């Protein structure tokens, strides 16, 4: 069944017409000038994986340094740079490109469109994001400036004022940091506009908003969301550069500026940013869980409403990152309330995913393994999130390793796990070949074990009172044993990721031929060939329900009967 | 009520017994205190701790229910080898069920919010009793300054450094310490887990917090907001003394520096080199405010913000090259001759 071409109206059963590409230069040229949404999606993906490896290597250096007390593996200066770069890279050069990797590749296919609404803006957005990455890493070379002060930024990824002022951060490292964020920010805004326009105006015939796959819904909300979220960040960076170069005093506390204004700007971006990064993970889970449980998503309207709800509420919770800055008691109480409200729509999502699995016939192929682990870890992350939202307890937990554990549960346990799920799931579509299941299972279990060894333990390091951002710690604190465990888990994860990288390359050349629809799935991207031809569909498809391919495969019991 | 062995407090304690066991050797050697957030010895820290137990109870219950469901689903509904190829029944949703799992979280949120708000107001808006001690803490890259104004047990105002001394409090006669938090440069954060959660020291934005330690001892903590290259070594030490010992300590700190003619050579070096531009030695011409006050340096247990024991060797090595201990700290190596360093060390050692 997997190999047969589905006779959906408008689907192509041709393998894509390949132009002859003779030289490496030709191929490279092709990729650089492309405006094709699929190629751009893959380029975003490759960029993300590349920087994931870089930032992962930085994390490993950090973990080696912290494995034992009073370690001298790297200097304090280097350590401070590494964690700043690790955080900044993971958020802006891995997480954000991933959002657009998925949105670019999958959304047009799922809505039966031939490309994004603005293909050139799409290419421009990608190259801006990439340029931002170059700016950030150029700081290693250009950061010292004329006076040889510093190299890469060492101000943490929060870059709290006034540490970023010229007086405390001479040289150009902070400038490259700010510039990188401004430039990738513009790329993000371009991408966000593009997704919105695409979803609003390019859907195929019959695909009403409430018939869009949940994946597309999440990406659509995300597209709108980033426009609101990125703006304060960009504004803050511009103010910072004005302070540094034009004698502004926004954050210059020596001249009456305000350190807390930076905090507000940063977190009014920073909190919703988490959701920007996690929505693609939700999107992937919503597809994979349906297909591998063999059931339609449970409570589709509630799922859509929950996403919109999360996005909306999350714009009013930012100061839960600032419980320790001395807000009034009423202010603290307000942000406790608004933050715990996020738990309601999030709970709905978890329960609906569970209900989708309930009564199904769950196939634990690699994508589903990752998604199941995601459900578990996301649950835990949500619960530690509740703990952190309790302002008085947050006075203890804030900036301790407990917080690091919590947000890595979100960023790795939820997002990275689902990114892996998504890659295993859509790799056959993008390349025409399956990824190795054996290596996939090895990858999953190693990563799962490594993840839990590292991040479960880290919660306890936090309870023991170890703060983040410290390059060393005295032996008399008693933190060394757990830290060693954390570091060992980090190494296990690194091995798993290398195994994954190997699997990618191996499968690209040697993987089993996938056919159009290897997972027996239900959304439109599986109706076209693998990889899809340049314009995706020869003629515009027409759909009558949320699962057009289900309707085709089950004419006796089509979804549109229940619409 | 749950059976006793299931009570959260017990489970939590067991879990942490594990972590504590791992760090037990630290407890054996160091002062009989630790940096754990689950062993509070002061009212605000205890209130936080009790609240946290309640939160663990609620989140633990949610965890058991949801993770249990997930496990059940994984086991019960996985595809079995003997299965036919048919698709399972398609269910698209159910309003009643979905309403149920919306309403229950709403109720949990209400409970969480009310209990949390109570503790916020109890800690933040606690009125300051008459007997309270007031101290101002100023964060510097990478050390702590404590200003004691004249009051109750403090006969005359003075400045202490890096080691905060406060009087023991008790349930019947609470003598809490109210700490005003300021910063001289960038954002820092004051965190001694056994006494209270952390509050930031932000330039142009005075904050305050209070503690009322109920057991004597030396409580450890450290700066909790990244503040530059030596953030990791901006350690905190809080000495909780009996009221008499505290009063004696304060009386000594309030005195000007000891004048000992036998170390005049060292004093001369100190006052003719840049030392005096950065350090105060009260009662002498050294009035620099950039670095820590050294008036009673020799009365302290540690140097460089709790980093190294205050021994003669360490003091000498520190003056010779501070970077050897604390690379990137803001005190330069002064390129003194060995003889000058010995003389200054002799001088500083007399500053009891
Ligand atoms: Cu947040
Ligand atoms: Cu500090």
Please characterize this protein's 3D structure.
The complex is a heterodimer of chains A (563) and B (352). Chain A is mainly alpha-helical and 563 residues long. Chain A has one domain (35-553): Cytochrome C Oxidase, Chain A. Chain A contains 15 helices and no strands. Chain A has helices spanning 24-33, 37-66, 76-110, 119-142, 173-201, 214-245, 259-293, 300-313, 329-357, 366-389, 391-397, 401-431, 437-463, 480-510, 548-553. In chain A, helix 6 (214-245) runs antiparallel to helix 7 and helix 9 (329-357) runs antiparallel to helix 10 (366-389). The model of chain A is unreliable at 1-5 (pLDDT under 50). With 352 residues, chain B is α+β, with helices and mostly antiparallel strands. Chain B has two domains: 14-73 and 96-247, Sandwich (Immunoglobulin-like), CATH 2.60.40; 261-349, Cupredoxins -  blue copper proteins (Immunoglobulin-like, Sandwich). Chain B is 37% helix and 18% strand. Chain B is built from nine helices and twelve strands. In chain B, the strands form four sheets. Chain B has a five-stranded mixed beta sheet. A three-stranded mixed beta sheet of chain B has the order 4-10-9. In chain B, strands 6-7 form a two-stranded antiparallel sheet. The termini of chain B are far apart. Residues 23-31 of chain B have low confidence and may be disordered. At the A-B interface, helix 3, helix 7, helix 8, helix 9 and helix 10 of A face helix 1, helix 2, helix 3, helix 4 and strand 7 of B.
